[in-house]
């Protein structure tokens, strides 16, 4: 059957329209999740640290973005807030996490969760518990037409920005000295230090880098969701599922799992709202039962 | 003396793995450390390298005290380490493995001309074609060569080598042996831990024999060759 051009817009409305917008919504949320989760996953992969304060650093970045954007603008916030988070991350690693690491996973989990709690209280005492709004920069406000759809520019920006970061990560690991050292240290850190490389320093830098990514995610998410103390739990939990689902330490696993969780979340809320929150966790349980190392991981 | 180890004591938990180990290496010398399995040969190398922290004792290298320093400082002082089982980075290419040997070393301790990728490829021609290949895909012998070459890239004046001939066919063992002789001619001293007695006496002028956690014999290769009863005491199973 041939559809006259004038009718196509009408046909696109309805289910197809919803599915498509929700699809792009899901991908953009998934990519934010990826930014938030990638640092968590990479830090675990290299340093064997499961940093429970990661989501709280992410939340702190959103607050930094709010305050910096008030004084200057969004772009300055996007530059400065993640750097500030990276500095805090490096200080935490150097002075709190590193001394505790030799004593095993349990003290480390308690410590990093404690750091998260402290950050949460600090945020509440400085910014309060009300929802704060960060506006996207003017150039990213409004809608752009995609075919017959009008889609928020800011969500497109998130997709493009995250893909640029992802390509940057790939280049960093493949082409730079730092990336080569990190790949080598992931498999044999003793040997790396026996070649004259200061591995503890690399660890601190890398921890800073991972938290920088969490900072980026926090800034980018601020105009998308409102800034509030529950942000850490809301996105942090999803990010944690992403890391476990994708396989601890696997960057590509985290990427695939992020998109998957993003899509499941948005389609779930749209199509079966009552059980939507269960979907991600059911998927995690299902995958872990079949493959305990996650989709792409080799560690339990 | 280039390296003087004195009264080195190392523990694994409660186990006294090295008891008052003392040994020395002159510049340009090849010295072999032999003994049965589990005597502490590898532990000696790891303790010198700082991978296991010795509890007491002194490690003087060119007059500087190294005991207690982290491994990267010891490598930067000019000691190269070729561990048992090669321990190449299987997820890195041959060329990346080689570059790893150079990245952490700032000072030039080179004995003789400096090592570059070009010079490495001259000494190890098989690497030219395979330079982009992940190290886990090359043979055991090639991995051994790569492990040695990687250490050389840091321009060490002393190499600690742990069982380079282990698990290799006789032809490849001879290739590794000849490479070590070649490197030594360029001025690099070698502390060689070996199971293969023939390789050890071919390369070394002096031999240390280890008994359980201690050094039980030290003399020239000629002396050891003339005393088969010492060989049977320390080496034969």
Round the Cα radius of gyration of chain B to an integer and report it.
17 Å
Residues in helix, % of chain B: 25-40%
Residues in β-strands, percent of chain A? under 5%
Within CATH, the superfamily of chain B carries the name P-loop containing nucleotide triphosphate hydrolases
Strand order of the largest sheet of chain B: 6-7-8-3-9-10
Query: What is the C-level CATH assignment of chain B?
Result: Alpha Beta
The separation of the N and C termini of chain B measures: 33 Å
Regarding quaternary structure, what we see is heterodimer
> Which geometry of chain B do the CA atoms define?
globular
- The order of strands across the largest sheet of chain A is 1-2
The coarse silhouette of chain A is globular
In total, the number of strands of chain B is: 10
**Contiguous uncertain segments of 5+ residues of chain A:** none
How many domain modules of chain B? 1
Class by helix and strand content of chain B?
A: alpha/beta
Major sheet of chain A, described briefly? 2 strands, antiparallel
How many H/I helices of chain A?
12
The H-and-E topology of chain A, N to C, reads as HHHHHEEHHHHHHH
Overall average residue pLDDT of chain B: 91
Largest sheet of chain B: 6 strands, mixed
Question: Radius of gyration of chain A from the CA trace?
Answer: 20 Å
